[in-house]
Amino acid sequence: MRTSYQRPQAAIAPTFRGAASALAATAALAMAALHLGGNAQAGQEAGSDAEPVRSQALFLTAKRLIVSPGNVLENASVLVEDGKITAVGTDLKAPEGAQAIQGEVICAAFMDPWSTAGFDTGSVNSRDLNAATMATDALDPYGEKAVLEELAASGVLLTRSQVGLASDISGFGAVLRTPSAEVVLEDASMSAAIGAESPGFSPDQFGGRGGPQGFSFGPQSIDPIDRIGQIDKLVSELAAGQKYAEDMAEYEKELAEWKAAIADKEKELEDDFKKAKKAREKAVKDAEEDGEEVKEKKYKEDRRPREPRYDAEKAAFARVVQGEVPMVVHAERALEIRDLLRSTEPFKRLRLVIAGGTSALACKKELRERGVTVIVAPSPANPGGPVGELDPGLSLAAELDAAGVNVLIGTGNASALASRDLPLLAALAVGHGLDRDTALRAITSGPAATFDVADQVGTVKRGHAADLLVLSGDPLSSSSRVLAAISGGAVVPQATK
Amino acid sequence: MLILPILVSALAFSAPATAAVSPAAGSADSFALQASRVHVGDGRVIENGVIVVTDGAIRSVGASAPEGLSVRKVDGEIAPGFIAMRDATGADSENNETTRKFTPTADVARAFDPHHPAWAHLVSEGITTVVMTPASDRIAGGLDAIVSPATGEIVKRGVALHLGMSSRSISNFVEPTSYAGLYAHLDRHFADAADGSPFAQARSGATRVMMEALSKNEVARAVAFAKQYGLTGAIIGAPEAGDQVDLLKSSGLGVVFEPLDAGDRADVAESAKALRAAGVPFAFASDAGTHGPAAMRMTAATCMRRGLDAQGALAAMTKTAADMLGVSASHGTLEVGKVADFVVWSGAPTDLTSRATHVFAGGKLVHESERSSSHHTHR
């Protein structure tokens, strides 16, 4: 659970901002309260308007219910009411009026941990982003329906989507319910990329990920020194975020002390109210007689602590460095991964996720020891390089898993449609040595856990949101089809013909 | 482990009838394998089937082996080796001809490099037969060739005249620069074809054509052209062929689907289903060189996830492909007398979760998966 900095803006919402003195602050607070009241009302109205229409209750039944990979109930049912899973079991009865859906297998909806679904190509290819960018600002719920339908038909109903794939630092990515472009978590990740614009990314060397045909990432001039420079920049941002977090903590501590002191002084003044009033009246009278201005008494308590200068990017990295938001870094080459691991070592609470990781095997020991998650993005459409430790091809997921590294499977493509292939990529990983349950976890509960939404999605549990699939067979089998896709409790009308 | 392909036959592969010799049981060159399932390739599936190979050819497929021949049991399912209908492994630069759009007599087999290391990846994904073609940006780029990447043999030269009839063949720099120009050139070549030229061969039906066409408009034009000159063969591309089923059926042409790139629309999936239902033959290209070795299987699996039946997917990568190329006497199914190109899969042959544990080409073991035993379960 997130405790502080709930949103990037929240980090800069000082209670007494702009107040010149304790008395003025009181007035300001009263104003703020009025303002908030107005907002709350507006919010309520907007909320009722935006409330998605949930369909009737759903009663799903299957021969195999995969609660979580490896945890299977035979001949079981799931009851869905008001968008939530309200019951899971083998002895459930369908309530009256519930829509019944049957299949061979029920499992949690697939979640692509590295997607661009929900965003336009301009935002996805933008390089003009920074740590404070919120991908959700570019979210287009009215985007390409055909794309979202293909994703739904393939069972990919959740994504951790980001913009600025080739941007050095691209800000906050979000967990989305793709069929409705509903935001599950708007600040699920911080994203960065090392060497994404390098010519070394050509298909003949490194799997050629980086976008649709004919698209190439930016200038063709990045060399290893440039890439290490990108890492240095990222690390200094982290350090700046750390300093900012410390300054903020110090400020909050001083602020609390100051507020306590103000309260004491106010009480003291109140207690001596009559005496103080008399003293002031006398001072006013004396001043009039002497033809001078009244000299107000100064209280040292009126000097409030100085708030650190607000910096949106540092505030964003402050959250990252404190482990509140995981940081996804796209890095492919062994050199960069090793350097990234070495130079982020001092940030003990950093939750590092490597995306891509073609040559991650070279650092498998460090990855395991540091608990770094790797989002493997198998790219069978691209020829790949020589199969070996530097590029094990489609065996990468299996070999990282064998080395004890936490593996997710994603697509990482500038085209959102690429997410459609997620279950096939997981299947290919199985065909190349990955354990079946591990592969399913890599596209369901694994991404949910890494991006802090495991309490809502990723497993079929009572109380979770109903993001589910009813399939004609095993989730990863090539001959299985999605019979029904349920997103946020509603059946997605889709192109399952 | 891959047996290095060293033999490059300059001749076409000998006819299967002569290859189907039947030496005595127990011959040094004979072996028998039993798998939980043997997919013949024509729709038949033999449970606990036994395949017997003698001198590189299939001697029998059935429930048992001849007496005296020991049967090795393998864990998995046996299917014919896959046939990739277009591939450029190791030959991409060889096949680039940027100045001339017409090189109709070019023999693409001359660009075959059996030593290229990337073939091993293709073989490891169960592909044992490959059609090499000229690059897509030429109009009459030459004659396609069938090769066996694992054995290094050239199976058949001059198998089809390759015609680029898509936007890929039109550029602003080399004539022709428009569809109209493209067809004007083609018309001239076909109308005035000299006897014995590839164009005349195609008109007489002695040589097939492989016509690259992508959009529906391009496909319609290519079909009309084929009808005009009585051409037989297939359209390569046509992702929306599902919308043109009647047209294609009336033409007698088959369809070869290109592998999907990440982010491509899966129109191919709907098209494959529609063609399957209508009985229009279709196969798949692998395009390794610009795509990974698993791209063809992945595209077939994409079709399956959207409703193509597994037998249809298997046929497209085996029997139908062989029929389309005119080599069904020697390739495409596991029947007596045919070349012993087959794969032992850890599960269903078209399922992406299956692994090619053993690949045989010409009766020789050319690939064995390092993880052919059960794999680890970590955590």
Automatic annotation (TrEMBL), chain A:
Keywords: Signal
Region described as Disordered: spans on this chain: 284-307
SUPFAM superfamilies tied to this protein: Composite domain of metallo-dependent hydrolases, Metallo-dependent hydrolases
Keyword Signal (UniProt): yes
UniProt cross-references to Pfam families, sorted A to Z: Amidohydro_1
Coiled-coil annotated residue ranges, if any: none
GO-annotated molecular function: hydrolase activity, acting on carbon-nitrogen (but not peptide) bonds
Protein name: Imidazolonepropionase
Organism for this UniProt entry: Saltatorellus ferox
Lineage of origin: Bacteria, Pseudomonadati, Planctomycetota, Planctomycetia, Planctomycetia incertae sedis
From TrEMBL, chain B:
Gene of this entry: hutI_3
Protein's recorded name: Imidazolonepropionase
Upper lineage: Bacteria, Pseudomonadati, Planctomycetota, Planctomycetia, Planctomycetia incertae sedis
Keyword Hydrolase: yes
Matches recorded under InterPro entries: Amidohydro-rel (IPR006680), Metal-dep_hydrolase_composite (IPR011059), Metal_Hydrolase (IPR032466), Metallo-dep_Hydrolase (IPR051781)
UniProt entry keywords in alphabetical sequence: Hydrolase, Signal
GO-annotated molecular function: imidazolonepropionase activity
Signal peptide extent: 1-19
Keyword Signal included in the entry's annotation: yes
Amidohydrolase-related domain mapped to chain residues: 229-365
Known EC number: 3.5.2.7
SUPFAM superfamilies per the UniProt record, alphabetical: Composite domain of metallo-dependent hydrolases, Metallo-dependent hydrolases
